[in-house]
Amino acid sequence: MTTVRFFARRAAFYLFTAWAAITINFFLPRMMKGDPVSAYMARNQGRISPEAAASLRTLFGLDSDRTLLQQYGDYWVLMLSGDLGRAFSKGLAPVTEVIAVALPWTIGLVGVATVLSFVIGTSLGALIGWNRGSRADVVVPVATFFSTVPYFWMGLIAIAFFSTTLGWFPASHAYDKGAVPALTLDFVGQVIRHGTLPALTIVLASLGGWVLGMRNMMITVLDEDYVTVAQAKGLSNRRVLTRYAARNAVLPQLSSFALALGFIVGGTLVMELVFSYPGVGKLLLDATAAKDYPLMQGLFLVITLTVLVANVLADVAYAVLDPRTRQTEA
């Protein structure tokens, strides 16, 4: 019963959070000055008739004949049916199709880089904390230094050194110019080659936080009684490290990792701008500049749901690793 109550409370909390986020997602763009139809008419002066403009407002749910609450109800009906509208800034293409084109690039690059950063940083932090006071401590200030460097500068330095000077990696784009995306070894090789440099900068920029956080938690956990008892039983250092110390020290890291996974879909906007990489971050910037409500709402919806799902998975992992969580919250 304790487990059931725990998951029921968490489910209720996340359902309410999802409703609040979707509601804000609907109203926030409409609080901005202007609208997509007016922005489109300003860019195409004299080429849009009043009748066409009225039709566009109806298409985008901005019809003045319907109140804001009625538009809100229409938004929920369409969203639950899988229709996120049409992207005004992308030739009236369905929002789902526009997002589906950009999403794999962001998940493939930022997702892999985030997971690598977490695994490497957490592992290093655990080893450094276990061997505290050793020469391995020098890794902490070095990793922290890279975390303090503005990502924009780190990206430019990486391009100047690895691309311009050494010529090891391309400086921009996700694949060679003129290449047609296809599931072939040649194209996959292009994607890996183009994605290595931005992925490397993401890993370096975020590594310090994982290392420092895990190291500090390991130092705290090593003073706990259960670690002392495990060592007194004669268990090997490797088992004490993995089964007792690191397992408990990693728990606070899971929440941060869940947030990092959730925001993978949001992309790293600066990275995509520096490396001219196609992704969700750049798409969101373009949609905001064009006041493209449907595309903005679709992107915010995907990002919000991804963050919520990632947090749900983190709660489940947290409860499995630490049963005390279920008992306390239930």
UniProtKB/TrEMBL annotation:
Residues 103-314 form the ABC transmembrane type-1 domain. One of its GO terms (biological process) is transmembrane transport. The chain crosses the membrane at residues 12-28, 105-130, 151-171, 191-212, 257-278, 298-321. GO terms for cellular component: plasma membrane. It is found in: Cell membrane; Membrane. Its main location: membrane. CDD domains: TM_PBP2 (cd06261). It holds the Pfam family BPD_transp_1. Keywords: Membrane, Transmembrane, Transmembrane helix, Transport. InterPro entries: MetI-like (IPR000515), MetI-like_sf (IPR035906). The keyword Membrane applies. Coiled coil: none annotated. It is a multi-pass membrane protein. Belongs to the binding-protein-dependent transport system permease family. This is ABC transporter permease. It comes from Xylanimonas oleitrophica. The lineage of its organism: Bacteria, Bacillati, Actinomycetota, Actinomycetes, Micrococcales.
